[in-house]
Every structure is written in structure tokens, then in C-alpha cells.
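Hi Prof. W.,

I finally got the Inner membrane component domain-containing protein prediction working! I wasn't sure whether to trim anything, so I left the full sequence exactly as given:
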Amino acid sequence: MIRFVLNVLWLVFGGGLVLAIGYGFAALVCFVLVITIPFGVASLRLAVYSLWPFGRTLVPKPGAGVGSGLANVLWVVLAGWWLALSHILAGVALCVTIIGIPFGIANFKLVPAAFWPLGREVVDAP
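And this is what came out:
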């Protein structure tokens, strides 16, 4: 029940909806530019994860090979480090207040996903 309440508060006040819309828009752009479809899939995964982060975690996808690792290097150079840095800055800013600490932690959980998204999947936390 606590996860549900935190997810609803995240969605409304923590910026979850804005993040999901941003990642969704980036996914649409990647789908239009056909060669970047794998990045679009990763961006869509980030959109869903950023929409409802509490009670979920990111794990390595079994069977992810060298191709996803090479694509991740390209992702880091083009967008990953900017996204990771923005999640770190937002997390630090949210952790300044006691009420914002859970939302700051949620932003910190999104850092590895934003930095290295390919070859990972979102699963329910134990």
C-alpha cells in the first residue's frame, strides 16, 4: 500500500508524469528515425519505469549481448550522461527536504537506467 501511495505522489508531485512524457517523446523521435529504434525501445522502457518507480527495480536482461553494450556506449555519449546528471541533480535537490527524500531516492534509482539502459529490464522488486 505504501508503494502505491508513493507512486501516486511521485506521479503528481515528484515529476513522474513530466519524465514519462519526455522519455515518451524521445521514444517517438527514435521510432521515426528508423535506425534508432533500439534507443526508442530503451527510452520507452525508461518512460514506463519513471512513471511508476516504487516497487520496481532494474536488472540485467539475460541474453543481452555485445550489440547492446556497443549501443550503450553510443547512448552514453549522445544522451546518457546528460540524463544521468539531470537525475542526480534532481535527486539532490529533492533530498534537501524531508518530504522530498523518497522522490530523491527514486531519481537516484533512475540514474543507472538513464546512463546504461540497453540490455536491462524492469521487474517488480521482491
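The CA atoms of residues 61 and 121 lie 6 Å apart. Does that look reasonable to you?

Thanks,
D.
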